[in-house]
């Protein structure tokens, strides 16, 4: 958007703002690099996104089980439903364990263990 704004300004004023183009180009490159490397995304974010995906699969499998009479499809949907619920339980446990790890109380004896 900023690049478009500079282009419109340059066309209107009949100039060429080289430093703005270089700065915005570097900014765009940095944003694409950060997106490709997923910097700033940690395990909690990944697990939360996976849980959203699993919940959509669970909802779809439940709808299929309610609305079909085909036994092989019901069996497949039930297997998927059970597997996804088991995965959701495991991911929830991972998130709870990670929260406990970070929120551990600092006592007098353990004060220097957290400082290093």
Largest sheet: none
Helix content: over 70%
Strand content: under 5%
Number of domains: 2
Question: What would your notes on this structure say?
Answer:
- There is one protein chain.
- With 116 residues, this protein is an all-alpha fold.
- The protein folds into two domains: 36 residues; 60 residues.
- 81% of the residues lie in helices and 0% in strands.
- It contains five helices and no strands.
- Helix 3 packs antiparallel against helix 4.
- The two termini are 44 Å apart.
Write the layout of secondary structure elements.
Layout: H1 2-13, H2 18-37, H3 43-67, H4 71-102, H5 111-115
Short note summarizing the structure:
With 116 residues, the chain is mainly alpha-helical. It has helices spanning 2-13, 18-37, 43-67, 71-102, 111-115.
Descriptive keywords:
116 residues; mainly alpha; 0% strand
